[in-house]
């Protein structure tokens, strides 16, 4: 498992680096800056939150750090609206990954799960909604939490409700951070903004 995890990190890291090189080669780095992303979401009007949630869901499927999306929400909308949009996006994204891991890739996931994760399954089973909420409170939307919960015996209803409750404190903190960080983030070079997801991706996997 350790070797598999190392190769997975290296593989994703190589893909992200290749993507960054392609972005610079195409001159798109400024288009992906925080200010540019914010402007495009606002220009989309009512479709902005829909587009945000769609990209959030796709990002969660490939283990892109959820914190980035929540911070972007905080940068784009006021705290109240950002919280609602990020909350909806988080629940939809987490549920999508749960369904894929449980009904499409369950066997593949189970073979690759380390033994220490089995105790989480037993712990969650006894606590249902409260167990899921506590796991989200501690680990937020880390990719491994989706996998563990997907192969556990927790039901979809308990998963969704526990996730919806447990992510709220993390969302509040990240949305506030996004709103406070907008001015300072836009002053950074575009390559710094692009490299942050790479570092978070390697940490989260």
Task: Describe the structure concisely.
This protein is mostly helical.
SSE layout:
Blueprint (H helix, E strand, L loop, with lengths): L1 H24 L8 H10 L3 H15 L4 H11 L2 H25 L2 H7 L5 H22 L3 H9 L4 H11 L1 H19 L3 H15 L1
Helix pairs in contact: 1-11, 2-3, 2-4, 3-5, 4-5, 4-10, 5-8, 5-9, 5-10, 7-8, 7-9
Describe the overall structure.
With 205 residues, this protein is mainly alpha-helical. It contains eleven helices and no strands. The chain has helices spanning 2-25, 34-43, 47-61, 66-76, 79-103, 106-112, 118-139, 143-151, 156-166, 168-186, 190-204. Helix 2 (34-43) packs across helix 4 and helix 3 (47-61) packs parallel to helix 5. The longest helix has 25 residues, at 79-103. The radius of gyration is 17 Å and the shape is globular. The chain starts with a helix and ends with a helix. Residues 1-5 have low confidence and may be disordered.
Which range does the strand content fall in? under 5%
Helix content: over 70%
How many extended strands? 0
Structural classification:
mainly alpha
- Unreliable stretches: 1-5
Number of helical regions: 11
Cα distance spanning the termini: 12 Å
Profile the largest sheet: none
- What's the helix-strand series? HHHHHHHHHHH
Radius of gyration of CA atoms, rounded to a whole number: 17 Å
What is the 3D shape?
globular
Mean pLDDT over the residues: 78
